[in-house]
Structure of 1,2-phenylacetyl-CoA epoxidase subunit A:
Amino acid sequence: MYTQAMDTMGKEAQNAPAAGQPAALAPHQQQLMARFDARIDDGGFIEAKDWMPDHYRRTLIRQISQHAHSEIVGMLPEGNWVTRAPTLKRKAILLAKIQDEGGHGLYLYAAAETLGRSRDELLADLHSGKAKYSSIFNYPTLTWADVGVIGWLVDGAAIMNQVPLCRCSYAPYARAMVRICREESFHQRQGYDALLAMMQQGTDAQRALVQDAVNRWWWPCLMMFGPPDAESVHTAQSMRWGIKRNSNDELRQKFVDATVQQAQVLGVSLPDPELTWNETRQHWDFGAIDWEEFWRVVGGDGPCNAERLAARVKAWDDGAWVREAALAHAAKEQARQTQQEAA
Ligand code: BYC
């Protein structure tokens, strides 16, 4: 279906420069590149069948597939609480939220497939540990308050990061993000609502659970935005191409600024003694993030990395019969149709 979009891959590979050499583009490719650059400079969109440089394509496949993996791995920490939600209403909300996240994964895998890599290949990269997914999902959900805090802080951080992606220069990704962001906004509110119920109508013990969950999730949420700009290898080029519209540090600051007041309304404290309003900057200053912890978790050594990956691999293996049955059904339908056409 998207074969035209894949055409350039082999040709560009043939023209790949020797190590350390700038790419030498053939004249027709220079023209295509100039047209591509002009469209990006105008703030225009690139569609699946448009020509695009190989590096742009690879950057998008990396980011979109990691994003898709994050959505389906992100179902697991909350899934832990479906059978233990405190009321039928909270259980129904949680089930709907987790189902939404599965749907987000599907939109994003579909967007990544338009760039020429199949879903099976992308999932194989996840299962082998080659592909990354968001660091945040390698932390455990110890109490019901964690589910509320995931909605409030994790989804809140996700929205801050993902709203600008609705204007990403790659149109299939941007379109997927519009729908995802609408749903994320409900996810964030349900988390905040669950926490408000615990803080305002709960017992002292329940309020303590909320504070404990906030203490554990706050710093990992700040890490979700990625390494500091000075160490972010991809930000400059991704912003040049309009894939990212803001840097990691800009979004992290916006998240802190938006969250402080929400914490005050909720009646919890944020676990950072250095959090202070800076009148000159008109922003909240915050303390140092433990980047060693971040890279350890990204590198596979977080509290739940092994458990999360094992759960995804098991789901894939357990689903083998469904994929086989669907393929057998499709083959039978195809054969029946061919017979009917021949008759
Ligand atoms: N965790 O140069 P940088 C959600 C990697 S879904 C792990 O700044 P970039 C939700 C980065 O990939 C949340 N790895 O990269 C779901 C790169 O490694 P590679 C996910 C991270 O791409 C369900 C290296 O560090 N959101 O919220 O310019 C339920 C250098 O980083 C992380 C998205 O995926 C991390 N936190 O910027 C509830 C949004 N941060 O690839 C909620 C789309 C960085 O060179 N993605 N790395 O091996 C993005 O916006 C960007 O890819 C990032 C990173 C801001 C994440």
